[in-house]
Design brief:
single chain; 504 residues; alpha+beta; Alpha-Beta Plaits; Dna Ligase, domain 1; 3 domains; six-stranded antiparallel β-barrel; five-stranded mixed β-sheet; 20 strands; EC 2.7.7.7; DNA/RNA_pol_sf
Length: 504
């Protein structure tokens, strides 16, 4: 069953303007003005403008009268569309092989079989919204079984993410307003006049009278929303994309036949990449079925490759996930991410007596769950939780090392945990401490190691101090604990104790 994500960018025009002008204060109300002849109205408004009572569709003169110092910028639909296209191409490289623009303010993607690479639907949607926020864009995202339902849910709520489980679409959309059906405004207005208020009201009405009066559009949108009529997504493609296709006069469906043609497509793709001096990092296989629906498989590699046998294996291992249905009429294979590759790939077997290259293992594990494969690397910071970062497993070394002048525990807690301590201030180690309900008597201790706050990152750390101790309890277990503050000055910290790590 398809799973469709709709991303709604409600303030895309104003977000675009603010990104182009970072010096613009977030408290300055900003609106985008559209015009038709002598008529001018608010086409988009940012959060600051909305808080002051401005609304989309409001006449410009009224908006100026309501808000003094209002910043107004003429609408530029072409620039908005260009930004939307760039965001859609970015989503294509990050989330799913089937991604398309949903103008004027949205992106749609089929994430069937791709959400596991992001840790599941919940993490995928929250991560997507957060990454848009990091780019200075307000976004809301919804996932459902159909494009129509996801589109309506993303635009009918103030929640950042909405997840509708498989088979629950009909129940979820019944209370949605009529405008969420993507019907022309005049039809929605006429339906309101007739007493219809929600999608549920409309879906419970006999179809024939509605079709006779308004034409087939209402029935088509209802069927698309409820999944009775397919609404295929035509995936976006970059202008310089390396892609190969194979169409079939007679639909195919047997696994061995699918495998044979995938092997041929991989060979053609590698030849095309070789002519450009490129290697594939991420490849998408799009399966076009005779019922006008798409299915996709994505394979990623840790480094650029053109090895036909290896790329074929990455797809062959997942052929069982392809559901041909009534048959497959076309296969497309595209190198979504390609990078320069000058050295020829070895044709020898990866199974050797001494395996020195772990890239094949990374590829196999990464295609099962891409977010789980990483390597830790040091960061130049004395604050322990900031001294480590996750990087790609094949990333180049940058020469950074961890400080070795003081011992560090092999296990560092994600967040320091509050403990109860008996200790003599200001510089003495604890006599005993209680962690996770168990009281421990300290037999040996070493410290303190004083770590100062990084004032150049946050002003609140100007006077911050931590005093770390390595302590050993009467059972021989060793822990890394610290006191927030110097034990004297309240401005240096809360004077509370925390456990931050455990030694082997």
């Amino acid at each position: 069953m398809a799973r469709v994500v709709s991303v709604f960018l409600p303030t895309l025009p104003t977000d675009r303007i603010r990104r182009a002008n970072p010096s613009l204060s977030p408290d300055t109300p900003l609106v985008v003005i559209a015009r038709s002849g002598s008529k001018r109205w608010v086409a988009a408004a940012d959060r600051a403008a909305l808080k002051l009572g401005l609304r989309v569709g409001m006449p410009t003169a009224k908006a100026q009268a309501l808000v003094q110092g209002l910043m107004m910028v003429d609408a530029d639909p072409a620039a908005d569309l260009a930004v939307l296209e760039r965001l859609t191409l970015w989503a294509l490289s990050q989330y799913s092989p089937v991604v398309a623009m949903d103008p004027p303010d949205g992106i749609v993607m089929d994430t069937e079989g791709a959400d596991h690479l992001q840790g599941g639907e919940d993490l995928m949607l929250s991560g997507l919204v957060n990454r848009f926020r990091g780019r200075g864009l307000t976004a809301r995202a919804a996932i459902a079984d159909t494009w129509g339902a996801a589109h309506a849910l993303a635009r009918s709520t103030d929640r950042e993410t909405v997840i509708i489980g498989g088979g629950e679409t009909a129940t979820a959309v019944k209370r949605l307003p009529l405008w969420s059906l993507r019907l022309p405004a005049e039809i929605v207005s006429s339906l309101h006049t007739l007493g219809f208020a929600t999608v549920g009201d409309l879906s419970a009405t006999p179809r024939a009278p509605l079709t006779l009066r308004f034409g087939p559009e209402i029935g088509r949108r209802l069927d698309q929303m409820f999944g009775r009529l397919a609404e295929p997504i035509d995936p976006i493609r970059p202008a310089d994309l390396v892609e190969v296709h194979k169409s079939f006069a007679e639909p195919i469906g047997a696994p061995e036949t699918i495998e044979k043609y995938i092997t041929r497509l991989v060979g053609q793709l590698c030849q095309a990449l070789e002519k450009r001096g490129l290697g594939v990092r991420r490849a998408d296989l799009i399966v076009h079925r005779v019922d006008n629906t798409l299915q996709s498989l994505r394979a990623g590699t840790a480094k650029p490759v053109r090895d036909i046998a290896w790329l074929t294996k990455l797809f062959r291992d997942r052929i069982e996930k392809i559901e041909p249905g009534f048959g497959i009429e076309k296969l497309s294979l595209a190198a979504i991410i390609a990078e320069p590759l000058t050295e020829a790939q070895s044709e020898s077997s990866f199974i050797e007596e001494h395996i020195t290259d772990v890239t094949p293992l990374i590829d196999v594990l990464g295609n099962r769950g891409g977010q789980r494969i990483f390597r830790v690397a040091p960061v130049a910071s004395d604050v322990p939780e900031r001294s480590v970062q996750r990087i790609a497993p094949t990333a180049d070394e940058d020469g950074a090392t961890w400080p070795m002048h003081w011992p560090r525990p092999p296990r560092l807690l994600t967040r320091p945990e509050l403990i109860e301590v008996i200790a003599l201030l200001p510089d003495h180690p604890p006599v005993s401490f209680t962690w996770r309900g168990k009281r421990r008597r300290v037999k040996r201790a070493d410290g303190p190691e004083r770590i100062f706050g990084e004032w150049w990152k946050r002003s609140s750390e100007w006077l911050a101090i931590r005093d770390y101790f390595v302590v050993e309890d009467d059972t021989g277990e060793r822990f890394w604990i610290f006191r927030s503050g110097d034990g004297v000055d309240a401005e240096s910290g809360s004077q509370k104790w925390f456990l931050h790590g455990v030694f082997a």
